[in-house]
């Protein structure tokens, strides 16, 4: 590749890897935040907002920078790879090895939160006769919020999945990853009564101004 095109391609590869890891660590931030609201809020009133930012945006740098350095040194040492110029040798996936820790922690938090929700629904069983349905709704809602589907796909690698199973995996991976942010925004933001009330106020003020 020409030098300018190679630099642009490498920058795109690094940015893509950073965004993939940031996505997974923001899954973890969402899980920790909800866990703190449901379980840990009574223990501390400290504002963890800055810590969440460091965890979501900063932690991926810890993995991407060594990967970028290793790729750079490997390509400089191998003239054939250097000729490719884009961190992408033929037949090789350029992905940073995804740390399993965020997904594993999310799974533990997910199980803990479901246990708390189940206990509360059972305690109010007279008020919520359909508590099993409510638990099912909570479970289905938390799966995209916490990225629990990633835990399943850790064990179903590309090498192990073939045929129809491969297409099923690719479909669910792309669908859930693409719409995860949209689902979270709708379920936890736009469907929230307080948010809808504020949006209604803003809309009324805008109509009065115009």
From TrEMBL:
Sample GO molecular function, one term: peptide hormone binding
UniProt keyword list: Membrane, Transmembrane, Transmembrane helix
Keyword Transmembrane helix in annotation: yes
UniProt topology in membrane: Multi-pass membrane protein
Pfam families with a match to the protein in the record: 7tm_2
Record's GO cellular component terms: plasma membrane
Localization (cell): Membrane
Chief location category: membrane
G-protein coupled receptors family 2 profile domain span: 1-192
Record keyword Transmembrane present: yes
GO BP field: adenylate cyclase-modulating G protein-coupled receptor signaling pathway; cell surface receptor signaling pathway
TM spans (from-to): 25-44, 51-69, 135-156, 168-191
PANTHER family membership: GLUCAGON RECEPTOR-LIKE PROTEIN (PTHR45620:SF30), PDF RECEPTOR-LIKE PROTEIN-RELATED (PTHR45620)
Entry protein name: GLR protein
Lineage of the species this protein comes from: Eukaryota, Metazoa, Chordata, Craniata, Vertebrata
Gene: Gcgr_0
